[in-house]
């Protein structure tokens, strides 16, 4: 084989490799363009059938946002812990006094006793929904005209959920709880029936109230970022 023929074979091999690299780059560019389009128009629980648990801004359970700092995964020296502590003014007091002697069996219930130890149990009372009946009256004035009372703000329907229920629903969304599980939670824990549609309506009202404030915050952040450039 002459040097010219050898050179031709080398060039043909390089050409095939360049074509393969070009095809790989074209495929990568296409993937990046698709990812960019997805990031520009993300699908979430608000604009599609994607459940709240699949929202893009939800951190993965297995992914920590904290970088490595060389510290062991435990309470650090000097850190103020959150150990459960007893309080001096409990809501309820239950006294446990001896009724019989553990040694001879005699009745000691009427004998004086002294406090030797305390133990406290922290618990949540049963959650029971409370219904507030708003009743509107009308009065006939001496002028002969009738005047009806006005209901407070938020009391707009024959039956509706109060601000406590709405605030709890808003808190559940921060934990990325799906609507179905949220509805089950209210029924199982609070004995309060609420449909997924009602949950969606409440969140829509919250979003409407929060939108002006969120826009103001976004503008302030953008202004600060522009000032740093």
Keyword list:
single chain; 229 residues; mainly alpha; 41% helix
Beta-strand content? under 5%
Distance between the termini: 63 Å
The radius of gyration computed from the alpha-carbon positions, rounded to a whole number of angstroms, is 34 Å
The residue-averaged pLDDT reads 82
Order of helices and strands: HEEHHH
**Number of alpha- plus pi-helical segments:** 4
| Class based on secondary structure composition and strand pairing | mainly alpha
- Total beta-strand segments: 2
**Helical percentage:** 40-55%
Main β sheet profile: 2 strands, antiparallel
Strand order of the largest sheet: 1-2
Shape: flat
Low-pLDDT windows of residues:
none
Summarize this structure briefly:
With 229 residues, the chain is mostly helical. The chain has four helices and two strands. A two-stranded antiparallel ribbon has the order 1-2.
């Amino acid at each position: 084989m002459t040097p010219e023929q050898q050179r031709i074979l080398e060039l043909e091999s390089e050409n095939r490799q360049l074509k393969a690299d070009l095809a790989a780059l074209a495929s990568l560019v296409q993937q990046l363009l698709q990812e960019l389009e997805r990031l520009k128009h993300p699908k979430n629980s608000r604009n599609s059938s994607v459940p709240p648990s699949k929202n893009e801004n939800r951190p993965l359970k297995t992914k920590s946002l904290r970088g490595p700092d060389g510290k062991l995964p435990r309470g650090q020296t000097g850190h103020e812990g959150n150990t459960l502590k007893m309080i001096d003014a409990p809501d309820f007091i239950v006294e446990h006094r001896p009724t019989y002697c553990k040694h001879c069996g005699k009745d000691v219930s009427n004998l004086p006793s002294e406090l030797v130890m305390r133990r406290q149990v922290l618990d949540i009372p049963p959650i029971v929904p409370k219904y507030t009946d708003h009743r509107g009256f009308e009065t006939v004035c001496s002028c002969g005209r009738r005047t009806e009372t006005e209901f407070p703000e938020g009391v707009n329907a024959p039956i509706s959920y109060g601000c406590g229920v709405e605030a709890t629903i808003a808190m559940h969304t921060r934990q990325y709880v799906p609507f179905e599980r949220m509805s089950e939670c209210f029924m199982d824990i609070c004995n309060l029936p609420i449909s997924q549609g009602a949950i969606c309506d409440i969140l829509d009202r919250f979003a409407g109230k929060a939108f002006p404030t969120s826009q103001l915050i976004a503008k302030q952040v953008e202004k600060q970022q522009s000032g740093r450039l």
